[in-house]
Structure to design on (57 residues):
């Protein structure tokens, strides 16, 4: 049984480029402090640039 807490695992998916939705990062966030979707600039290995990644559903 997994413990229930405030921190949850989320996936960040790329929003730009030809491989939109394929560049995936996994991170955690505190669901109590951050109600809205997380957005970060992360490195995309296909475009070789830092592009915006958003939290997926």
């Amino acid at each position: 049984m997994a413990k229930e807490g405030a921190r949850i695992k989320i996936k960040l998916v790329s929003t730009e480029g030809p491989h939109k939705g394929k560049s995936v990062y996994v991170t955690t966030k505190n669901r109590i402090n951050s109600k809205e979707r997380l957005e970060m600039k992360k490195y995309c290995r296909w475009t070789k640039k830092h592009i915006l990644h958003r939290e997926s559903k």
